Amino acid sequence: MLLAPLAACASTTSAPPAPVAAAAANPPAGMQYLYGSGEGAALSVQAWHGLLGYVASKMKARPADSVVLSQGASLDAPTFVPCGDKPLAAVFDVDETVMLNIGYEYHDATSGKGYNAADWDAWEKTGEGAVEPVPGADHVLAALRKMGVTVIFNTNRSAANADATARAIRAAGLGEAVHGQTLYLSGDDAMGSRKDGRRATIAASYCVIAMGGDQLGDFSDLFNAGQSVPTRRAATMTLPIAGMWGNGWFVMPNPVYGSGLKGGFDDIFPMDKRWAPPAKGE
Amino acid sequence: MLLAPLAACASTTSAPPAPVAAAAANPPAGMQYLYGSGEGAALSVQAWHGLLGYVASKMKARPADSVVLSQGASLDAPTFVPCGDKPLAAVFDVDETVMLNIGYEYHDATSGKGYNAADWDAWEKTGEGAVEPVPGADHVLAALRKMGVTVIFNTNRSAANADATARAIRAAGLGEAVHGQTLYLSGDDAMGSRKDGRRATIAASYCVIAMGGDQLGDFSDLFNAGQSVPTRRAATMTLPIAGMWGNGWFVMPNPVYGSGLKGGFDDIFPMDKRWAPPAKGE
């Protein structure tokens, strides 16, 4: 239902504006998957369903701890900020976690310019008309608020564009965001794009019952400590951290940009898992 | 832990075989994401955790219906095969659902040849040494069997290569698969790559409590009825089907190949969600 207008577009008879000459015939595979496919939509809806079910289940007995790592915790020995009697909150990244940046990615794919800070800043300031919710996010954020859970956004968009970002969040159907209360941004502290400080600030006032993000840095800066690509992947698959996925920490798909799109052949394909077709006659 | 050997590889001092000249410096973004990233691994582990939790919860009260659509069902008005007193099973696609085809994708990325049927057939026959489980799949399939749920694979690998595919499944740590009992393949019936017939055969003997796949065709052929890309995406987000994701139907990420990687600019970017940076001075 959400995408009924989209379906209508496909059968429109008016000619669309052609992509600029340099662009490929089709959007990159990652964009096809994330912004256009049923598979990608189903994956997002599934993650949001999982989050809602988890929070509903956890609320039956008040959790002792937030899902925010405490200061000094490590990935090998994670400890969490205690909840005390603080009110419940859920903390989410914004871009490609709750909101799809359709307009910006259209520009990216058709201009062939790749990411640049000036265009992204212009997008933060003026993009509110060209966003959509991540499939499922709008419904689940509304449900969380109805259950009495405060929804807090923790994004690396700039504090200088706080008002425009709040407007974009609202335009995507994701509700209200108030800077310093339910919206935390890059520039709010001295840690730049690292989010641990902002998470600590939030967890000082709230019992954070769940977090959602498309990048590992949305859960802990410890994932971005300069590890090799394979070591970083292994860290997500090693207990006890591996037990967090779907149990307090919820990942949304993003094969379009970010810290997941790194690595050379030696990082991605282990030496003992390489293959070539047998020579003819073998 | 699973990827500790991978981490060791990254610091090896012996020179790796160089990719062939035509190949890019790095694997494509989708492969970096699916085979190398922590984000992709976390997303898979999360989906497998969701599946295990769902099955454990459903088993407390025996379900009335399988999650396999009944003949004549539509996506708008889905009906399901009744369970009766049939034993419980869970049905899974193989490639990029339970098993990562690391070796084949290395060949694909370095040869620059793209998919071709002859190389894929050779891979089915000889690839068993170069596969890995999808993160979480090995643990969860073992847990399901322990709970008394029969694990059944329904894949479009060829029936002619049944033995080699069973060996690859075993080599990936995914347990035993017996053709005609717990392994269904393309060629088992006259429907080619369409899986509804095989699903009906399985659901005639089992109460299918959950299904997992990386392609929508792993859940129903109705998603591959020639719809436009936006219509197909909308179908996954429309109730009651939207309610299945994470509740009986479990999607695994695959931004590398398949029916999710389709569509031109008009399919992926709705006309009313396009954006360009404002001209200077605006």
TrEMBL record, chains A, B:
Pfam family name, one: Acid_phosphat_B
GO cellular component, one term: cell outer membrane
Gene3D superfamilies: HAD superfamily/HAD-like
UniProt cross-references to SUPFAM superfamilies, sorted A to Z: HAD-like
Signal peptide (from-to): 1-17
Superkingdom in the source lineage: Bacteria
Keyword Signal set for record: yes
Keywords carried by this UniProt record: Signal
Entry-linked InterPro entries: Acid_phosphat_B-like, HAD-like_sf, HAD_sf, Lipo_e_P4
The UniProt record lists the keyword Zinc: no
Name assigned to this protein: Acid phosphatase
Lineage, opening ranks: Bacteria, Pseudomonadati, Pseudomonadota, Alphaproteobacteria, Sphingomonadales
